[in-house]
Specification:
2 copies of one chain form a homodimer.
Chain A lengths: L5 H11 L7 H11 L5 H14 L3 E6 L2 E5 L7 E4 L5 E3 L10 H7 L2 E12 L9
Parallel strand pairs in A: 3-5
Antiparallel strand pairs in A: 1-2, 3-4
Chain A binds a DNA duplex through helix 1 and helix 3.
Amino acid sequence: MEKHSKKRDAIYDIICSTKSHPSAEWVYTQVKEIHPDISLGTVYRNIARFKEEGKIITVGVVNGQERIDGDTSDHCHFVCTHCGAVIDAGAPDVTDTYSQVFKDIGCTPERHNLVFYGRCHDCTGKRS
Amino acid sequence: MEKHSKKRDAIYDIICSTKSHPSAEWVYTQVKEIHPDISLGTVYRNIARFKEEGKIITVGVVNGQERIDGDTSDHCHFVCTHCGAVIDAGAPDVTDTYSQVFKDIGCTPERHNLVFYGRCHDCTGKRS
DNA sequence: TCAGTAATAAGAACCGTTACTGATTTACGA
DNA sequence: TCGTAAATCAGTAACGGTTCTTATTACTGA
């Protein structure tokens, strides 16, 4: 019997309504506009729950903060090393390429994460 | 003019002499056997330096700890979600596949990181 | 030897995240 | 619409990996 929670729904809605691949902190500030009494712990707790339920995925850690994605479809990401933006970058099909490799080392891959690093469109050409 | 440092050399040697893709903590305990007065801060500082110099790369964050690799050649990794082991998994050739994607979104990738997750050979079939 | 500079040890500070506790909200049957 | 139990939450303390600070030490060239 899964109980519903307005705050949990709000957290999930905000995660799914953005393509910015947000951090917990960002989600927290956004939910706070709707539920000013929300706690950062609630955001973390529900993000962990969504991950366990497979409703969201983690993109990776950028500048020490974990970034999440409400889009669980098979796709990879581009991380700007200058401004920290995380951008969708299409769907890979690399698993087949590596099937023999994993047979050799006896590993059973369940998922993978392909991340490119570089400068995003806005940061290309910037000085510092 | 790069100055000589026995401890820095020891840190680098240990990183390069293992294929375990260690954490800073692991490197610290290893260097401590040679230099008992080594400081954890020194390990972190020199790891950061090696990264800047391009002498090592970071594999990713496993269980909250950053894992590094002295092998800077083009290859990807397998992370065991059960025991946390990081294993080399051959060389990818995915950049070409994505060249058009990056033209579309205007990003200039410099490097990438492909990580597979699952159970390693030893952990396949284990219960908990 | 000496001055100047880089590297270091020790530990405090930092910061994202997690755990805990008591209060509040939710689902659901009466 | 109530009452009740379980789920959820706010607030906050604690945790742990990493970074920063400061005093000290080691190295280099003169």
